[in-house]
Amino acid sequence: MLEHIAEIASAQLPNLSSIDILESLMNREKLGSTGIGNGIAIPHGRIKNSSKAVAVLLVTHKGVNYDAIDKRPVDIFFALLVPEDQCDTHLATLASIAKTFDNKDVLRKIRRAETDLDLYNIIEAA
Questions:
Q1: Pairing, β 40-41 against β 74-83
Q2: Maximum Cα–Cα distance across the chain
Q3: For residue 79, what are the β-bridge partners?
Q4: Which residues form the catalytic set?
Q5: Can you list the positions of beta strands (E) in 12-120?
Q6: CA 21 to CA 18: how far, in whole Å?
Q7: Are 66 and 73 in contact (CB under 8 A)?
Q8: Spacing of C-alpha 84 from chain mean position
Q9: pLDDT class for 84, splitting at 50, 70, 90?
């Protein structure tokens, strides 16, 4: 899943390869799983040579074993990549994402979404 996220993100970060992005995500995962429970993971990492943050939302039809804190499979992945010089923004954004995914109505809508545009609109409204 992280490889897929890295490939998608690299299209938005032309100065970085998908391997660089994957390495950033993996470095964070080595500290502990970003699977926060309830089928949600928020993989994240800091990136060099970029001035913009990138988020990737993936929803799977079948959950993936991700070593989440509740040991349940993960079906919602919200990845965040932030320039390494924006630590405060990174932490504030992670907190905001976690709060958004604590809303059961938002989760239900995400799991029922049929298109990428549906997902985008749900996150934007939340």
A1: parallel
A2: 37
A3: 56
A4: 44
A5: 35-37, 40-41, 44-47, 54-64, 74-83
A6: 5
A7: yes
A8: 16
A9: confident
**69 close to 40: Cβ distance less than 8 angstroms:** no
Do residues 44 and 21 make contact, with C-beta atoms less than 8 angstroms apart? no
Instruction: Look at residues 37, 36, 33, 48 and name the one whose alpha carbon lies nearest to residue 2.
Output: 33
Euclidean distance between the first and the last CA atom of the chain, given in angstroms as a whole number: 24
Apex CA 1: angle with CA 68 and CA 73, to 5°? 30
**How does pLDDT run across 42-79, given as a tens digit for each residue?**
999 988 888 888 999 999 999 999 999 999 999 999 99
List, for residues 85-114, the tens digit of each pLDDT value. Answer: 877 776 788 888 889 999 999 999 999 999
CA distance 98 to 35: 11
Higher per-residue confidence, 85 vs 7:
7
Q: What are phi and psi of 5, to 5 degrees?
A: -60, -45
51 token code pair: 């001035």
Question: Which tokens in the block code for residue 26?
Answer: 């993996």
